[in-house]
């Protein structure tokens, strides 16, 4: 579902929801130097001197490493938690080679029972209390970030840790976008925010400052849409705080790329695949539509991604045999569509094959690659209650909930649907926002939202090019002011070139 966050109807829902539940000094790198007296012929001491110097360097690195706290932005789903644990082991293995003292490596989903731990800011006070005296840096990364620990130490060593620093790989909007509330509309390129995939760092003085501010001014109940942009805005504080400092050693190139020799971090840019892709017959696709969109949106679906789906049904307020659509007996609403979505869930559970483990619900203006989704789903266990897509949040600073935003597609395991419908959690009205109600329901059931950045609530042009450059996207949303067929064949089609009306076509992403 599409919306502009913060508008009046969401404030109404909020009430209902609460009722329900100068660069710093450069540090030079240590290196071995031997001095041999003039005329000396015995060079047997040279290796000993180099070994001693290396030992001293390792002690220095070990001391500096102890001053870094690594925070992996992990998730509790079994697939994601395993990847985060693998990264943790890799960091500690590298650290063990540098000395006895190992750094703290924390998985964010294990740190706090708070629903909003993934939004990071609610944890700043804990970071300050626990690490504010004996550490220099908090370094954040994603589960697929790869870290060269020694290079990271060298990189952070260029910055004076006693000052306020906000470091990362800089992203920026080329034009103002709804997902950033049209911020900096006159020149959106001026505001930089970090690409989490490359890793990002806060100096402890800045962490302490943020913690103090959060103590006196708690986070407001509001929407979390794009966390990386919102954190940068909060730190910037309308010019009273630091801007993001771009660090070229924080990279999102693949670890095998020729470009990464200087990089302290790299990123795994492949689409996850854990064995064979799930079968076409294991994914049931439900398209939400209504009569007024049968003539313009549905033809786009049929021209693009419908052919990828073995099981697909169109749900409308009018039965049109030419598509065909199914009338669920739920009147169309101008917003929300909660009644229709729950009717789809009931139909999937009671009328589809019980052997179909996955349900995908999309809007009629969602562009999606079912081919890529089948690969992605190979990494998830349908026997677990999985609710997957692009994660947003509501009121997480004050105990709200996370939800999967509907426009990019919502993926359910059959187990998740069974647990949801076995509960008494339902729409408070037929036109309630379906994705938010679902988020609230799953939160009440203790079933976590599983986030994938490969799903997108908006169009490709609404995201920084640098952000999309290391993705293999699964979905985008909205047809507004774009050619949706062109977008599909550029970004989502199974092959680089696809046959369109009997002709080979290839599109340049730079044109979109």
Describe it.
- The protein has 512 residues and is α/β, with parallel strands linked by helices.
- The chain is 30% helix and 17% strand.
- It has helices at residues 8-20, 45-66, 78-96, 124-131, 149-156, 204-216, 227-236, 297-303, 338-351, 370-377, 414-422, 434-445, 465-468, 484-491, and strands at residues 68-72, 104-107, 137-141, 145-147, 166-168, 170-171, 193-194, 200-203, 223-224, 245-246, 265-267, 283-288, 311-316, 325-327, 358-363, 366-368, 387-389, 391-394, 401-404, 410-413, 450-451, 475-477, 498-500, 503-505.
- The strands form seven sheets. It has a seven-stranded mixed sheet. The protein has a six-stranded mixed sheet with strand order 2-1-3-8-5-10.
- Strand 12, helix 8 and strand 13 form a beta-alpha-beta unit.
- Helix 4 crosses helix 6 and helix 9 crosses helix 11.
- The model is unreliable at 1-54 and 496-506 (pLDDT under 50).
């Amino acid at each position: 579902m599409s919306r502009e966050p913060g508008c009046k109807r969401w404030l109404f829902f909020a009430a209902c929801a609460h009722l329900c539940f100068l660069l710093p000094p450069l540090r030079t790198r240590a290196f071995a130097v031997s001095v041999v007296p003039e005329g000396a012929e015995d060079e047997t001491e040279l290796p000993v001197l180099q070994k001693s110097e290396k030992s001293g360097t390792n002690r220095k690195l070990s001391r500096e490493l102890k001053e870094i706290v690594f925070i992996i932005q992990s998730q509790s789903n079994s697939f994601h938690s395993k990847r985060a644990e693998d990264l943790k082991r890799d960091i500690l293995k590298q650290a063990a080679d540098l000395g006895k003292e190992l750094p703290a490596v924390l998985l964010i989903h294990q740190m706090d029972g708070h629903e909003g731990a993934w939004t990071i800011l609610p944890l700043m006070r804990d970071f300050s209390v626990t690490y504010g005296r004996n550490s220099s840096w908090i370094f954040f990364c994603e589960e697929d970030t790869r870290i060269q620990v020694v290079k990271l130490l060298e990189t952070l060593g260029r910055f004076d840790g006693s000052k306020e620093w906000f470091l990362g790989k800089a992203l920026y909007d080329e034009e103002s976008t709804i997902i950033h509330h049209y911020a900096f509309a006159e020149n959106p390129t001026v505001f930089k925010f970090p690409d989490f995939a490359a890793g990002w760092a806060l100096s402890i003085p800045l962490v302490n400052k943020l913690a103090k501010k959060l103590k006196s001014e708690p986070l407001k109940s509001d929407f979390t849409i794009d966390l990386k942009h919102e954190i940068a805005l909060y730190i910037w504080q309308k010019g009273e705080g630091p801007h993001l400092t771009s660090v070229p050693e924080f990279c999102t190139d693949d670890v095998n790329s020729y470009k990464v020799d200087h990089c302290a971090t790299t990123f795994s840019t492949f689409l996850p695949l854990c064995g064979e892709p799930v079968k076409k017959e294991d994914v049931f696709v439900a398209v939400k539509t209504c009569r007024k969109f049968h003539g313009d949106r549905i033809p786009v679906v049929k021209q693009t991604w419908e052919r990828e789906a073995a099981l697909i049904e169109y749900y409308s307020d009018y039965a049109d045999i030419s598509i065909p659509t199914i009338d669920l007996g739920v009147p169309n609403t101008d917003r929300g569509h909660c009644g229709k979505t729950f009717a789809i869930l009931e139909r999937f559970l009671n009328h589809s094959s019980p052997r179909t483990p996955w349900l995908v619900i999309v809007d009629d203006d969602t562009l999606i690659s079912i081919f890529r989704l089948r690969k992605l789903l190979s990494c998830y266990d349908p026997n677990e209650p999985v609710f997957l897509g692009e994660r947003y949040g509501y009121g997480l600073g004050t105990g709200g909930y996370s939800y999967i935003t509907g426009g990019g597609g919502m993926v359910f395991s059959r187990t998740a649907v069974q647990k949801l419908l076995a509960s008494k959690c339902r729409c408070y009205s037929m036109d309630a926002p379906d994705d938010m109600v679902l988020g609230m329901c799953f939160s009440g059931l203790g079933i976590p939202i599983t986030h994938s950045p490969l799903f997108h609530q908006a169009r490709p042009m609404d995201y920084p090019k640098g952000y999309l450059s290391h993705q293999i996207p699964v979905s985008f949303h909205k047809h507004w002011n774009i050619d949706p067929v062109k977008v599909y064949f550029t970004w989502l089609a199974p092959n680089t070139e696809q046959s369109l009306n009997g002709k080979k076509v290839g599109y340049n992403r730079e044109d979109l």
